[in-house]
Every structure is written in C-alpha cells, then in structure tokens.
C-alpha cells in the first residue's frame, strides 16, 4: 500500500468519526436584510466526534437553543449545511433524542407509559417495549414510581422521566437543552452524574446546552464558548478528563482552571448582553 | 354525610321558594311543586308523552354527537393552524353572541320542518363554544409537548390523537359541558316553533291550552335531565384530572 493510499484510509476513518458536522450554519429569523429580521446564530462551524460529550455555554439569547433546534431538525438553517452521520439534516433525523429544558413529561400518562410513549408510536413490538422501558426506568432510578403520574413527582424526577423517554429510543446523538436549569445545585450535580453514566452506557454523542459553567466543565470532553448574538464559537476548551469521571472532579485543581478559562471568555460576552439588554 | 346535606338544603330552599311564589302569584299562573310533581307522574304514564320525549331525545342525541365531534375536530384544526385560528376566532365569538333564534327561519328553509332542522339548530348552539374551548386549549398548551412529539418522529395525525387531544381533554370536557346544555336549548327552541312533536312543542301546546301543570312538569323533567348530564360530565372531568 502506498503512502497516499494509507492517507486516504486515515481520511475515511476521520470522516466516519465525524458524527455531526456543521459548516457555516447561520440562522436568521424574519426575511434577511429587512429591519425586523434577527440574525440569531452563526456562521457556526463545528464537528462532533462520535461518542464525545460536548457542551455549549454562552450568554442568554446567544442562539444556543437555535443551534439545538437546527441539530434536532426542528429549524432549518438560513445558510450553511448541517449533517448527521454524513447525511444532511432535513426534518427530525432518526437516531437523535432531545431532552428539553421545560418539563415535557405528559401529565396524563404514568411514568412507565411516558417512557414507552415513543416506542409505541414507532410500532415496536410489546415484549421489546416492556424490556426497554424496564431497563430505562431502572437505569434512571424510577422503578418505585413506574405506576405514578408526573404530578406526584418532584421536578428532578420528572426530568429523569424525560431522559428515560429519550433513552429508550436508543439515540446515537442526545441533545440536551439546559435540562437541569430548573433544579437546585445539589440535584444538578447528581443529575450530572446520571448523565455521565448514561453517556458511558449508551456511547452516544452528547451535546449539552447549559448556562452553568461548572456543569460544562465537569461533564464535557470539550466546551464550546459562544459569543453574544449572533452566536459564534469564540473558543473551544478541551477538558482532558478521563471517560470514567463523576461530580467529585469538582475538587480537582484543573476543574477550577477550566471553569476560570470559560468565565474569562464568557465575561466580556455576558457584559455585552447585559449592556444591550 | 355533609355532601348529601348541602344539596338537600338547597333543594328544600328551592321548593320552599317555589311554594311561596306559587301562593304569591295565585295558583293558576304557577302551579305548586306538589301539583307539578303529580302532573309529571301522570305524564310519565302516557304513551303520547313518551312519543314526544323520544323525538326530543333523538334530536338531542344527534345534536350532541355531531356538535361534539365537529367542535373538537374544528377546534383542533383551527388551533393547530395559527393563521386559521387568528382569522376565525373573532368570527366564532361574534357568531356565538348572535341571538341564533333570529336565524331559525333560515334553518327551517334549508332543512325543512322535520327533525333535521332541530338537530341543526342544536348544533348551531352547542358547537361554537366547544370549538372555542378546544382552540384556546391548544393555543395555551405547553409548546414543549408538540416539540417532544416532533422529535419522537410522530406524524401530525399521531400528534393530534396521542398528544394534543389528551393534553387539552380537561378543557374539552369543560367545553362539552357547556355545549351539551346549549344543544338541549337549541333543540327545544327548535321544537317550540314550526313543529308538531317533541317536548318543546308539548310545552307550547300546553301553554296555549292554559295547562300550566304540564308546562312546569316538562320543565322540571328537562331541568333534572340537564343536571344529571352535567353531573356525569363533571364526574368525568374530575376522574381525568386525577
């Protein structure tokens, strides 16, 4: 095999390794060029490696959620291309699961029925549904509440239901939009542990949108820092954590360094947002 | 015990007020509760009464089914499509506040003198509030429910049936409670004019003869039916909210 051929092989594996690819993704609301149009996002260039944990932090209103909508196929980019597993994202791609910030559990269904919901609509056979739901409910520590309704659960528990509902679909890319934003600090740290456990277990690619710098620093392989609107990446920080990690790394000396670096980048951007309203 | 005592006290006060009113206006205009109840027992034994009641029941049932199905379907359609909803809401609100009895001649010309005119008139009364309730419930539904449905790959039809409908059901039941009683009103008004049968006709006919005990007996019966239907829907509402 020649050197050139070898290089080609390496290239192909690099392409396969690129699970998500955003090239020049821009999102403008309203007709571009008109005074009422809002340039919300981009241009964004981002490659996510298969199986990596990537977090996005940025000032409020920087287009983080718009970025997630583009990846989830809920919003089309005005310009640029978004690809998942080598195919352009057009509509909601199969293999992508989303956990939203707001409580999305259905109050009219029990925990078990909530978790089974997507599988039932997808026409998966009953035995397989039972097996997967049982596993996801157990994994998220909801076994004792399988027959309960969301109204009987705390906010943290309801968010676990939503995560379990995404987990049973066996997504290869999990998008999370500030999923722990409404929870208290302790619960958030523990939910972070759950998320890491889930990430290792499923070996899915995870994109987490958060406003909590410590959360991003603790959970991620890489953290993308976004600017004020229109949001673009101004820095991508490699954390260098081991795959086996949990919330106890907050006492690691590097945790402070990473959080510090994130804040340094974000401080000016947040000030801009504060000044512009 | 307490739950029985309350309504019983209300009933006793109502009967007492009725009796007092009966004594105050002299007995020909307003028969006493006892006379009314006795007349009702007599009516219940007559085949002719049951023929009228069955006419009303048929028209009422048809109006309820059609206005419920139509109201929910139209409400979902208008609620899911923002433009259609924005355009039609003021139209529906104005139609709702219109005294529909003024349009009854038009209904009669279109549907003729039979039962279908009364069914149509019942639907005209019952369907609009249900449509408005359904539509507003969808507009106020948490957007995250529809987003969740979208990311789980549900078709618009699956989203309507398995997410939107259960999410708005409490409001729909409230709308249906209002709609059902208005359907009954519409059907009865329909029967009062240009009709030869039904309880509405029976009331008008009895009034012409000065047979006030029959008028009141039928009114009492209708009130009881309306209250029972309302209670049943209320129970359904409570059961769902749990």
UniProtKB/TrEMBL annotation, chain A:
SMART domains named among the record's database cross-references: AAA
Domain ABC transporter: 20-253
Keywords from the UniProt entry: ATP-binding, Nucleotide-binding, Transport
KW NADP (keyword) present: no
Superkingdom of this protein's organism: Bacteria
Pfam families: ABC_tran
GO molecular function: ATP binding
InterPro entries hit by this protein: AAA+_ATPase, ABC_transporter-like_ATP-bd, ABC_transporter-like_CS, ABC_transporter_ATP-bind, P-loop_NTPase
Family statement drawn from the similarity comment of this UniProt entry: Belongs to the ABC transporter superfamily.
Protein's name according to its UniProt entry: ABC transporter ATP-binding protein
Organism of provenance: Rhodoplanes tepidamans (Rhodoplanes cryptolactis)
UniProtKB/TrEMBL annotation, chain B:
Alphabetic keyword roster: Cell membrane, Membrane, Transmembrane, Transmembrane helix, Transport
Leader peptide range in chain numbering: none
Keyword field contains Cytoplasm: no
Family recorded in the similarity comment: Belongs to the binding-protein-dependent transport system permease family.
Record has Transmembrane helix as a keyword: yes
Residues annotated as transmembrane: 59-79, 91-113, 119-139, 175-194, 215-236
Localization in the cell: Cell membrane
Topology within the bilayer: Multi-pass membrane protein
Species for this entry: Rhodoplanes tepidamans (Rhodoplanes cryptolactis)
Domain ABC transmembrane type-1: 53-233
UniProt protein name: ABC transporter permease subunit
């Amino acid at each position: 095999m020649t050197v050139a051929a070898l290089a080609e092989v390496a290239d192909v594996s690099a392409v396969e390794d690129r699970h998500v690819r955003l090239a020049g993704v821009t999102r403008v609301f309203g007709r571009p060029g008109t005074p009422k149009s809002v340039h919300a996002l981009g241009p964004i260039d981002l490659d996510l490696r298969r199986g990596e944990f990537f977090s996005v932090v940025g000032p409020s209103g920087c287009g983080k959620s718009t970025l997630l909508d583009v990846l989830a196929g809920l919003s089309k980019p005005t310009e640029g291309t978004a690809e998942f597993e080598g195919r352009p994202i057009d509509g909601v791609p199969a293999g992508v699961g989303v956990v939203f910030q707001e409580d999305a559990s259905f109050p009219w269904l029990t925990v078990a029925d909530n978790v089974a919901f997507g599988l039932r609509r997808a026409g998966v056979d009953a035995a397989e549904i039972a097996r997967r739901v049982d596993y996801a409910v157990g994994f998220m520590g909801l076994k004792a509440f399988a027959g309960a309704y969301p109204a009987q659960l705390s906010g943290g528990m309801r968010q676990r239901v939503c995560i379990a509902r995404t987990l049973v679909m066996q997504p290869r890319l999990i998008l999370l939009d500030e999923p722990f934003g409404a929870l208290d600090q302790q619960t958030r740290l523990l939910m972070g542990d759950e998320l890491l456990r889930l990430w290792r277990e499923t070996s899915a690619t995870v994109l987490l949108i958060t406003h909590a710098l410590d959360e991003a620093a603790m959970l991620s392989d890489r953290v993308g820092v976004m600017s004020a609107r229109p949001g673009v990446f101004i820095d991508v920080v490699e954390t260098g954590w081991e795959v086996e990690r949990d919330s106890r790394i907050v006492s690691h000396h590097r945790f402070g360094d990473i959080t510090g670096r994130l804040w340094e980048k974000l401080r000016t951007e947040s000030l801009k947002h504060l000044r512009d309203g | 015990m307490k739950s029985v005592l309350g309504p019983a006290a209300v009933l006793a006060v109502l009967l007492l007020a009725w009796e007092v009113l009966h004594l105050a206006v002299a007995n020909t205009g307003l028969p006493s509760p006892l006379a009314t109840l006795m007349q009702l027992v007599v009516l219940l034994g007559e085949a002719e009464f049951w023929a009228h009641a069955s006419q009303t029941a048929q028209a009422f049932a048809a109006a309820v089914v059609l206005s419920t199905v139509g109201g929910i379907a139209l409400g979902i359609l208008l609620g899911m499509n923002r433009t259609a909803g924005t355009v039609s809401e003021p139209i529906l609100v104005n139609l709702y506040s219109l005294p529909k009895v003024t349009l009854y001649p038009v209904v009669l010309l279109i549907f003729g003198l039979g039962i279908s005119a009364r069914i149509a008139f019942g639907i005209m009364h019952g369907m609009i509030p249900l449509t408005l309730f359904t539509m507003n419930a969808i507009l106020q539904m948490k957007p995250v429910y529809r987003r969740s449905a979208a990311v789980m790959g549900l078709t618009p039809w699956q989203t309507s049936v398995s997410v939107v409908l259960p999410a708005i059901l409490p409001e729909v039941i409230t709308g249906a409670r209002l709609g059902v009683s208005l359907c009954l009103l519409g059907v009865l008004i329909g029967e009062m004019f240009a009709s030869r049968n039904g309880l509405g006709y029976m009331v008008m006919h009895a009034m012409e003869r000065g047979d006030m005990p029959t008028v009141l007996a039928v009114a009492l019966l209708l009130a009881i039916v309306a209250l029972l239907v309302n209670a049943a829907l209320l129970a359904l509402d409570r059961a769902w909210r749990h």
